[in-house]
Design brief:
six-stranded antiparallel β-sheet; 14% helix; globular
């Protein structure tokens, strides 16, 4: 670098440092994550949601054999097919998935099918004994030959 260029660079650096007088600004607040709760491929949708087991109504938990514990969450998954002029309809699917913490090994989820009142869903329980973010990987394959639907979901569960 030539002496004039070095002098200009040094002057610019000092000017910038002088203009920034005072303490460094604090961290910028992160925007909340936005997860639409579904993935769509063609005419098919994979819809999903989680709830801590203690938030389930007692009658609902009892009817599905789910323990209402603070270290357990419920993952509910539905696969729907859209058609012209009608509401999306549930379709049977093969659903698989894993859960893991940000530093843990993936653990397979065990889904069971629940059919009631014309709806069809698949539920699995999540171990949330440790507070933090749980990463859930889902794949659903409609049994009527529709495309595979995949989702990666991050859920944060606070200490209970």
């Amino acid at each position: 670098m030539t002496k004039p260029a070095l002098g200009t660079a040094l002057a610019t650096t000092l000017l910038l440092l002088g203009a920034c007088g005072g303490p460094a600004p604090g961290p910028v607040a992160a925007r909340p994550a936005s997860d639409p709760g579904f993935v769509a491929v063609g005419l098919y949708e994979l819809r999903y949601g989680t709830v801590v087991a203690t938030e389930l109504p007692v009658a609902v938990a009892r009817s599905y054999g789910i323990e209402r514990r603070g270290d357990l969450a419920l993952l509910n998954v539905s696969v729907l097919r859209r058609s012209d002029g009608t509401l999306p309809q549930p379709v049977a699917a093969s659903v698989t998935g894993t859960q893991r913490s940000l530093i843990g090994e993936p653990r397979p989820l065990e889904f069971r099918e629940i059919s009631a009142g014309g709806s069809l869903s698949y539920v699995a329980t999540l171990d949330i004994a440790s507070p933090g973010i749980i990463v859930i990987a889902l794949e659903a394959r409609p049994l009527d030959g529709g495309p595979a639907l995949q989702a990666s979901i991050n859920r944060e569960f606070p200490a209970r």
